[in-house]
Amino acid sequence: MRSQEEYVLRTVEERGIRFVQLWFTDVLGTPKSFSITPAELEDALSEGMTFDGSAIDGFSRVQESDVLARPDPNTFQLLPWHGHGGRGDGPDAPVARVFCDILTLDGSPFQGCPRHVLRRTLERARDRGFTFYAAPEIEYFYFADSDPLHPPQGLDHGSYFELTVADRASDMRQRTVLTLEEMGIPVEHAQHEDAPSQHEIDLRYTDALTMADTVMTVRLVVKEMARQQGVHASFMPKPLAGVQGSGMHTHVSLFRDGANAFVDLERPHGLSLVAEGFIAGLLRHAGEITAITNQWVNSYKRLVSGYEAPVHRSWARNNRSALVRVPLVKDGKVESTRIEYRAPDSACNPYLAFAVILAAGLEGIEQHYELPPEADANLFDLSIEELGSKGIAHLPGSLNEALASMESSTLVAETLGDHVFEWFIRNKRAEWGEYKAHVSQFELDRYLPLL
């Protein structure tokens, strides 16, 4: 037995853990879980636990339903909001969680598992000598409740970096950060965001698979801390009209032999050919991957001009209207050189999003894409003609447009694999069909009295 598995079993015994939750996600990134007792844990670690995959969206058909959830012992962690440090039974019993890889019954990777999609893409990068790191900025809102029949009611009226006293929302954000730290998840910083009742938690960079697991954990912890206070936390991309939506700007970098492969101090701006190729790949394939990084009808209410979200396929060193930004680094800190991809929102499936971002960047490196000129103006102020003259195209303006671009993408199809690619498009086409047939309150207010 491997040492990490031995550590898990020993910790469960020493800490009096009564239940272990096995976590995984469906294709859309919806968290799924079932619990086992410590008596089942050793077998689960070595053989996996069988469950009916046909009950999970995007997994198996009925005739091929059973799959295995095999825990990844490196992801084992106690859930601080259970047990309160005691060893009791019932609702206060100590509980732990572990992320799982989903396998077929013969032990091979299950093609519908988002974690496997990311693993496979990371292996492609590793074959080329690269390790892929990510550090997302996760934005979300606090609301009084989740009742869709009434407009969302925020908990504060703060704005960007607002410092408040005795603020319920800020207190919940602080509780969330402390809980994450207790779980071994380092937070770089957290703050109030621009919109009322909007908050942000920025995570310290780590390898992309660990970070995808972490994003899923952060979303659950944020919601759990809010639930304990009788309110609702939402990662909906655009819950409120007239203010900014919630993005998940993601900082990424490639390392090779322990050094940042994006750095070359002999070249302009200190960016290596690897970095330039990665940016060029993102720009060329941005339209194709947007359905993954922005997977909901509501995602495209955020990707509009005037609310700081990117809508143009461009790059810049210090221009927040660009899709890809190269943040300035402190003197002597060149190893922190990175690329910020600003399109994703906080409701994406992080496994699939990181996979397509990496795949697009690798394509740019391998095919030696030429980096277009840097955007040196506020793109929101330019006309369509001016953007066209600079060769700057728009991101898809709707889920329908994004799916059309994705459907013709060999890169996305190969990255996701046939199983996930085909199911995702079917599911999202159905979502778009329902949305297109819906008559909104906007239409009733605008047209019913007039027409």
Task: Give the helix/strand layout.
Blueprint lengths: L2 H12 L4 E7 L5 E6 L1 H10 L1 E4 L13 E6 L5 E2 L16 E9 L10 H14 L3 E13 L24 H15 L4 E6 L5 E6 L2 E2 H21 L3 E3 L15 E7 L2 E2 L12 H21 L5 H4 L12 E2 L7 E2 L13 E3 L8 H17 L17 H6 L9 H9 L2 H28 L3 H7 L4
Parallel strand pairs: 1-6, 14-15
Antiparallel strand pairs: 1-2, 3-4, 4-6, 5-6, 7-9, 7-10, 7-11, 7-12, 8-9, 12-13, 12-16, 15-16
Helix pairs in contact: 1-2, 3-8, 3-11, 4-5, 6-8, 6-10, 8-11, 10-11
Explained architecture:
This protein is 36% helix and 18% strand. α3 runs antiparallel to α11 (410-437) and α4 (168-182) crosses α5. The chain is of the alpha+beta class. The protein has two domains: 3-106, Roll (Ubiquitin-like (UB roll)); 120-444, Creatine Kinase, Chain A, domain 2 (2-Layer Sandwich), CATH 3.30.590.10. The chain has helices at residues 3-14, 38-47, 114-127, 168-182, 208-228, 273-293, 299-302, 350-366, 384-389, 399-407, 410-437, 441-447; strands at residues 19-25, 31-36, 49-52, 66-71, 77-78, 95-103, 131-143, 187-192, 198-203, 206-207, 232-234, 250-256, 259-260, 315-316, 324-325, 339-341. A hairpin with a 5-residue loop joins β1 (19-25) and β2. The chain has twelve helices and 16 strands.
